[in-house]
Design goal:
Layout lengths: L1 H25 L18 E3 L3 E6 L6 E7 L2 E6 L6 E6 L4 E7 L6 E7 L2 E6 L4 E5 L6 E6 L7 E3 L4 E4 L4 E5 L6 E6 L1 E2 L2 E2 L3 E7 L2 E6 L4 E6 L5 E6 L3 H4 L9 E7 L4 E6 L4 E6 L4
Parallel strand pairs: 1-20
Antiparallel strand pairs: 2-23, 3-4, 4-5, 5-6, 7-8, 8-9, 9-10, 11-12, 12-13, 13-14, 15-16, 17-18, 18-19, 19-20, 21-22, 22-23
Length: about 270
């Protein structure tokens, strides 16, 4: 009898041991050192712009695009029957030359790449291409959806359309090459508007907001924010001033130039120390 009890005890022990081993193998510990998803997410830092200079801006301009190219500042302005593109003399801060966009088009973002000027339209699904020296029309491209902001990384055209998606396009045929979805942690960020490529990041105005998102150009993640809520209070002609819109980076001074729709001031700010 003792031998029988011993044999049964040994069998039961082996079964329990086997079950315990199988459970351990199929259920590894939840936290793993090499699993990045277990790391706490750090909220993007919010910067306040450090103003280094203020310049006059035509308060009748409904700013849609703003950028430097070859040392000159350029701007596109919207609204039907009032849209135009112009070059700004940064000595007088007046337009040294400009040309109107046909009345049936609402001009949006603009940029120069490879000696071609590209100007988006709001709902007309057309990107116009001009000679930046003569402002003569060269060609036009069609696209789906709306046109909002436009910039370049020196190779692609980078476009927003009012959603949370930024598109990288081929400048030769305007075909979409790739896209990124903009997000702050798990939150999707839409109404992406005017864009500017600054030292490998994309700066974006958020329509109807005083915030600028600094975006990782590969992942679409918001790296940090620039809170520009105080700028509109400082702008001249502020009685009709609308939303912040217009970001231009000067690679020599390393300053960023900001303005808005109907703003009477262009603010030069320092790059934040991230």
């Amino acid at each position: 009898m003792l031998n029988v009890i011993c044999r049964y005890s040994i069998v039961i022990y082996c079964v329990i041991f086997s079950i315990g081993c199988n459970h351990q193998d199929t259920n590894p510990p939840y936290t793993q050192k090499n699993d990045d998803t277990t790391k706490p997410q750090t909220a993007p830092q919010i910067f306040t712009p450090q103003i280094v200079a203020e310049y006059p801006h035509d308060s009748l301009t409904y700013t849609q695009g703003l950028f430097f190219h070859g040392g000159s500042l350029y701007e596109s302005s919207g609204l039907y029957g009032q849209s135009f593109f112009g070059q700004i003399d940064t000595n007088s801060w007046k337009y040294s030359r400009r040309f109107p966009i046909e009345a049936q088009y609402f001009a949006e973002g603009s940029i120069i790449l490879d000696n071609k000027l590209y100007v988006l339209t709001y709902q007309e699904r057309t990107c116009f291409v001009y000679d930046p020296l003569t402002f003569k029309a060269i060609s036009a491209f069609g696209y789906d959806g709306e046109g909002w902001g436009l910039t370049t990384d020196g190779k692609h055209l980078i476009m927003s359309n009012g959603s949370n998606i930024i598109q990288f396009r081929n400048p030769e045929n305007f075909a979409v090459i790739s896209t990124i979805a903009i997000h702050d942690g798990q939150k999707s960020i839409d109404r992406i508007n005017e864009l500017e490529w600054i030292e490998g990041d994309i700066w974006a105005n958020i329509y109807q907001s005083d915030m600028i998102a600094i975006i990782d150009a590969k992942s679409g993640a918001v790296k940090s924010w620039v809170d520009c809520s105080e700028l509109r209070k400082k702008t001249k002609g502020k009685s009709q001033a609308e939303v912040l819109n217009g970001i231009a980076y000067h690679p020599t001074t390393k300053n960023v130039y900001l303005t808005g729709k109907y703003w009477g001031t262009v603010f030069a700010i320092q790059l934040p120390q991230m």
